[in-house]
Design a protein that fits this description.
GO biological process, one term: proteolysis
Radius of gyration: 34 Å
Keywords: Endoplasmic reticulum, Glycoprotein, Hydrolase, Membrane, Metal-binding, Metalloprotease, Protease, Transmembrane, Transmembrane helix, Zinc
Structural class: alpha+beta
Number of strands: 22
Number of domains: 4
Subcellular location: Endoplasmic reticulum membrane
CATH class of the largest domain: Alpha Beta
Largest sheet: 16 strands, mixed
Shape: globular
Cofactor: Zn(2+)
CATH superfamily of the largest domain: Zn peptidases
Distance between the termini: 124 Å
CATH architecture of the largest domain: 3-Layer(aba) Sandwich
Family: Belongs to the peptidase M28 family.
Length: 913
């Protein structure tokens, strides 16, 4: 009986379980049927074969090389043998010959040296005389050799310097129509370059290239019929030590008052195309002339904003013309390709390309003709009369043509673009919601999630790139890309791209059972990416950043292809929308890779010559630029990876590339420096120092090698190679107690890396004995009022000197003889004001006369110290080989061949008064 009951109960339970199982199966079938019903509304988009994405990737690589190679496309150089056939053309071989003579026959041309003041001046004069002898009879040429003394306040964002100069030479040439009196002449066009160089550099590029170009331009226009406006050619003899010669011309020369337009020609990296990187903002018509006349455009607002925000540690004579010649409309051009050679011994003829010279010559000839025929040059107003002006947005496309428009137009265009992008994204989201049978709130939620996923992918990608930058720096492997820029692709591009594609991949994988196909999710991701860019466009436009145009380009093409996809209903016809979308991003990608290549060329070499390079991790800059290039150049391609078969293998490919490139970066291949190509820079001064107390007694005296480094690695790469470097010590303590560390900085900018530089005690340099050595003597110190004393000093010595003055706390300088009014700003060092005076003497520097200056010091009522200020003299023997000791020469020779070592001797004298 008991067993029967148990059997009955068990049977009932089994029947109940079977009933529930059948019910669950029916529910599952119903759910599956519902999902199939939803999916059946639209065709299922099968995953695309992997080879298509590989093809897309290879096309992107090809586009990158196309963008990069366009920077190196030049016109065919014209040789001297072709001169009869091209009598009205710029002959690049002639310019090349001028450069070769300056760089090879003369060599370095530092102000004050015979090379600069005699040999270079004589050569340029001889060429001018030859041009005059063979000129067109309708042309009249005047030329002058001017020698000037002067001073001015040179300002920058970080520093302020009083520039004193004596015996500075300029060679000035005027080319005009014959039989036109000077009183009838007006509206000159001025071309400017400089023939001096930095120490120990032959200066084939900076600025021998532009001197050669100007000599050939002078020859060419002397053969042509006269222009409407006179041409002025200024060959200035002192730019490298503080832009002194251009200042001398601006404030002294009678021709300056009639100069309306300046074409400044510079070199910050020999070779390549001349980049037109800034104009005077008040004269937007300059860009119109450039646009309509120059055959080989190479210009961008991005470079202008980078330069004007101080990211490039260089300055040009353009600055002086803008400050001291307020009526002048000006262009600033510069070669900037091989900046590794800039200011080094490698700035030689091997870096000069005749095609590059032809490119520059053709452009400047066309620009001069365009300016000469323009009406604007005759209708110019002074800058002070221009109450309102609109800056210009400008950029070229692969050197083929130039696009430019006003900033106001840019604001309007960007605003309209933002509006239409918002509308089309909204329509696409609505269409997605409608086709998927979703409620409005569900459709909006799906888009918000897609937007969140895209933002998350970008943030994680950028974060990973920055973390890699941090790790490489911590491990001492920074700058592996310095000589091998291709490493950037694997180290930074691949991780960023991986994250940008992997985060959406995870989300789609998580939603793989969703009735919505991957194709629609990818479209949402692309719309989300566009939304991110359009928001960025709106923000940058609102901030007045003209470079915002870079965000407008890809989004504008996105709008066009999306509109076509909507019109032809490709979004619902399989993967047809994808092909149109990819085709639409080809031109933007080429442009972004072109711009990215330009940024790499401009900014990567700076990491080895920055005055504050030791204090900054250069990996962050390179990682940031790469993330930006990847975002703009491939951002619209990253989401579509999720439409392909075996997508996880595609993603894994980027990880593998990253790991391989990271391993390569850790090997000798990743060593940053290469001989003659990308050398590490050092400046070493063999220095004798003497510090005097207020009572005239010496408080400290020593001699040593002051080792100045420019980049993040400092002297670490040579520590185990140069035996004497093991004795090097940091100078932190002296930087905390002495003015500018008590070191002989060549200019005040060198104080930027001071806390990272080193000192090696040594024998004294072979400087002249006391009666003949440089001096800074107190001529007179007298009280002129309560708590005020006037000091008169006399300075004499070498052709390159500086004076540093620092009042103690409780004291201040209220007047001086250097400028009419006291500067409102001075560099602070250890919470004390420091005034830096730069002195340079040019021609006849061996017979320089003493220079006298005065200043007034005011102290507080309760100032009780025995002296109120410190003053120091720094004298440099840049071109005096007889001051070099055998030990110092051996020390320099012990540096490896992949270094560039500037070196000379110096004297540092410090006093308390």
């Amino acid at each position: 009986m008991y067993d029967l009951e148990r059997t009955t109960v068990k049977s009932v339970k089994l029947e109940r379980l079977k009933s529930e199982s059948d019910k669950l199966k029916i529910d599952r079938q119903s759910s599956s049927s519902t999902m199939q019903l939803i999916k059946s509304q639209f065709p299922v988009h099968d995953p695309l074969p992997i080879w298509i994405y590989v093809l897309i990737f290879l096309v992107l690589v090809m586009l990158f090389f196309l963008g990069y190679s366009s920077m190196l496309s030049f016109p065919r150089p014209i040789q001297k043998v072709d001169e009869l056939r091209y009598s009205d053309r710029f002959i690049s071989e002639r310019a090349y010959d001028h450069i070769a003579y300056l760089a090879d026959e003369i060599g370095y041309r530092v102000a004050g040296t015979p090379n600069n003041e005699i040999l270079a001046v004589n050569y340029i004069n001889e060429q001018i005389k030859e041009i005059i002898a063979n000129k067109n009879d309708d042309i009249e040429i005047e030329y002058e050799n001017n020698v000037y003394d002067g001073h001015f306040l040179r300002q920058s964002k970080m520093y302020e310097v009083i520039n004193l100069y004596r015996g500075v030479q300029n060679i000035v040439v005027k080319l005009k129509a014959r039989n036109v009196s000077e009183s009838d002449e007006k509206n000159y066009i001025l071309l400017n370059s400089h023939f001096d160089t930095v120490p120990m550099s032959p200066g084939a590029g900076d600025d021998g290239t532009m001197v050669g170009v100007m000599l050939e331009l002078l020859r060419l226009f002397s053969k042509k019929p006269p222009l409407r406006h006179p041409l002025i050619f200024l060959f200035n003899g002192l730019e490298e030590s503080g832009l002194q010669a251009s200042h001398a011309f601006i404030v002294n020369h009678r021709w300056m008052e009639k100069v309306n337009v300046l074409i400044n020609l510079e070199v910050v990296g020999p070779g390549g195309k001349e980049l037109m990187f800034q104009t005077t903002a008040e004269h937007s018509w300059l860009m119109n002339i450039y646009h309509h006349n120059v055959p080989h455009s190479f210009a961008t607002t991005v470079a202008e904003e980078i330069y004007q925000n101080g990211l490039i540690p260089s300055d040009t004579d353009f600055t002086n013309f803008r400050k001291f010649g307020p009526h002048v409309a000006a262009y600033d051009f510069a070669h900037a390709y091989n900046a590794y050679a800039y200011h080094t011994k490698n700035d030689a003829m091997s870096t000069i390309s005749k095609g590059s010279l032809q490119h520059t010559g053709d452009n400047v000839v066309a620009l001069i003709k365009g300016l000469d025929s323009s009406s604007e040059i005759d209708a110019m107003r002074t800058r002070n009369d221009l109450e309102e002006f609109d800056k210009v947005v400008f950029y070229d496309f692969l050197g083929l043509f130039l696009i430019f428009y006003s900033q106001l137009t840019s604001t309007i265009l960007n605003s309209v673009l933002f509006a239409v992008l918002t509308c089309i994204v909204a329509w696409c989201v609505y269409h997605f919601k409608h086709t998927q049978g979703m409620k409005f709130r569900s459709g909006i939620l799906e888009f918000i999630i897609a937007l969140f996923i895209q933002v998350l992918g970008l943030l994680i990608g950028a974060g990973v790139a920055m973390f890699i930058a941090f790790l490489l720096d911590v491990c001492g492997r920074s700058m592996s890309w310095y000589s091998n820029q291709w490493l950037i692709f694997g180290i930074y591009f691949c991780p960023f791209f991986f994250c940008n594609a992997f985060i959406p991949y995870l989300y789609i994988k998580w939603r793989e059972k969703s009735p919505v196909s991957d194709s629609y999710y990818v479209q949402l991701a692309i719309h989300a990416h566009c939304t991110i860019l359009s928001i960025g466009l709106a923000v940058l436009t609102g901030l007045g950043i003209r470079s915002s145009f870079i965000l407008a380009i890809s989004t504008m093409f996105y709008f066009g292809t999306t509109l076509l996809n909507v019109i032809f209903d490709f979004v619902n016809k399989g993967n047809k929308w994808l092909y149109l979308h990819c085709l639409g991003q080809i031109l933007p990608s080429i442009f972004y890779f072109y711009m990215g290549s330009m940024m790499y060329v401009l900014l990567i070499p700076i990491n080895a010559r920055a005055y504050d390079g030791a204090d900054k991790n250069p990996e962050y800059m390179v990682a940031g630029i790469t993330c930006l290039i990847a975002l703009l150049g491939t951002g619209f391609y990253a989401p579509i990876l999720n439409m392909f078969k075996h997508r996880k293998y595609l993603l894994g490919m980027f990880l593998v590339i990253f790991v391989v490139f990271l391993i390569i970066a850790m090997t000798p291949v990743g060593f940053p420096y290469r001989e003659k190509e990308s050398e590490q820079r050092y400046t070493i001064w063999h220095t004798k120092r003497e510090f005097y107390r207020h009572d005239g007694q010496i408080r400290k005296a020593d001699s040593g090698y002051y080792i100045y480094t420019y980049d993040r690695h400092g002297s670490t790469p040579v520590k185990d190679i140069v035996p004497l470097m093991k004795k090097a010590v940091k100078i932190d303590d002296e930087c905390n107690t002495e003015m500018l560390c008590g070191m002989p900085f060549y200019n005040v900018h060198y104080s930027g890396n001071a806390f990272y530089n080193e000192w090696i005690p040594s024998e004294p340099p072979l400087l002249p004995s006391v009666p003949n050595r440089p001096y800074l003597r107190l001529q007179e110190g007298k009280s002129i009022a309560r708590n005020r004393r006037e000091y008169t000093f006399v300075l004499a010595g070498t052709d390159h000197m500086s004076v540093v003055i620092s009042p103690l706390k409780g004291a201040k300088i209220i007047n001086w003889s250097f400028t009419e009014t006291m500067s409102k700003y001075s560099k602070l060092w250890n919470n004390r004001e420091v005034y830096y005076i730069n002195y340079v003497h040019g021609v006849d520097s061996n017979n320089m006369k003493p220079y006298e200056f005065t200043f007034v010091v005011e102290t507080d009522e309760h100032f009780g110290l025995q002296y109120s200020f410190e003053i120091a003299l720094v004298a440099h023997y840049i071109h005096k080989d007889e001051t070099l000791t055998t030990q110092f020469k051996d020390f320099i020779q012990s540096f490896p061949k992949w270094t560039n070592v500037q070196h000379w001797t110096s004297l540092y004298l410090s006093y308390e008064y």
